[in-house]
Amino acid sequence: MEIKFSFDGNAFLIVLDDNAAAREFYAMLPLEFEMSDYVGKEKIAHLDKRLSLENMQGYEPQIGDFFYFSPWGNIGIFYEKQPPYTGLIKLGVIKEPKEELIKRLRDKKQNFKAIIEKHSK
Questions:
Q1: In the prediction, which pLDDT does 93 show?
Q2: Average pLDDT, whole number, for the chain?
Q3: Long-range CB contacts (< 8 A, 24+ apart) of 31-36?
Q4: Domain definitions of the chain by residue range
Q5: Cα three-residue angle 73-74-77, rounded to 5 degrees
């Protein structure tokens, strides 16, 4: 499953993992979010509906990961390294163009609107 993440006239592809939370998120699309910065390492947005934690385990986050943080009900993208944290679930990873999106997210200081929608190949 692939999704398109768009903001400020730019579109990027994210490949979703094959897990219950990612499938639930995919079924909710399209969605529009107000993204904000968190600790200078990730862009996050609140998700109105909680995602499934079925068979989910923690993981070692990487730059470019698309994630769900279950304690707060947030989705986000890491643009800097973060340590593992209980309740952090990987939903997918930026496919293309990864370096360009990471740079744009890092440089974006204000909140911004983002649209996430299903992408068909």
A1: 96
A2: 93
A3: 31/115, 31/116, 31/117, 32/113, 32/114, 32/115, 32/116, 33/75, 33/113, 33/114, 33/115, 33/116, 34/111, 34/112, 34/113, 35/7, 35/111, 35/112, 35/113, 35/114, 36/111
A4: 2-119
A5: 155
* pLDDT (0 to 100) of residue 60: 93
Distance of alpha carbon 57 from alpha carbon 35, whole angstroms: 25
Span 87-120, pLDDT tens digits: 999 999 999 767 888 998 999 999 999 999 999 8
Distance CA 4, CA 94 (A): 10
What class does CATH assign to 2-119?
mainly beta
50 by Cβ neighbours in 10 Å (0-12 / 13-18 / 19+) ranks as exposed
Q: 0.70 exceeded by the pTM?
A: yes
Placement of tokens 């209980």 in the chain: 86
Alpha-carbon gap, residue 31 to 100, rounded angstroms = 22
